[in-house]
Amino acid sequence: MQFITNILVTSIAVLIVSYLLPGVSVDTFTTALLVALVLAFMNAIVKPILTILTIPVTILSLGLFLIVINGLIIILTDKLVDGFEVRGFWWALLFSFILSITTGILNVIKIGRAHV
């Protein structure tokens, strides 16, 4: 049940962030739902592999290369999901950053409502 609510929260966050950023577009809520599912898969499977493969670069950059990996995951999601468009690497980085913040805020709201 928690996985489903996390996907729904992320879908809403994807819609909000795409509305805020002119370099990102999402066609429908269904597309946002698919983006959330693909991002969940990418973060569970692809991101750990990329992180392990880039350990030397990550250490040399003091961990900042992990931000680049986040951007690459967003760009890969853009290529996999029709109706989701990110217009470049910098928009992907900004989308990733704002999506994390928005999802965090929505999760706090969700948790707050659960205790009421």
Helix-strand string: HEHHHEH
Number of helices: 5
* Overall pLDDT score: 93
Quantity of strands, as a count: 2
Largest sheet: 2 strands, antiparallel
Strand content: 5-15%
Write the layout of secondary structure elements.
Blueprint lengths: L1 H19 L3 E3 L2 H25 L1 H6 L4 H16 L3 E3 L2 H26 L2
Antiparallel strand pairs: 1-2
Helix pairs in contact: 1-2, 1-5, 2-4, 4-5
Protein architecture, described:
With about 120 residues, the protein is mainly alpha-helical. The chain has five helices and two strands, in the order H-E-H-H-H-E-H. It has a two-stranded antiparallel sheet. Helix 2 packs across helix 4. The radius of gyration is 15 Å and the shape is globular. The two termini are about 20 Å apart.
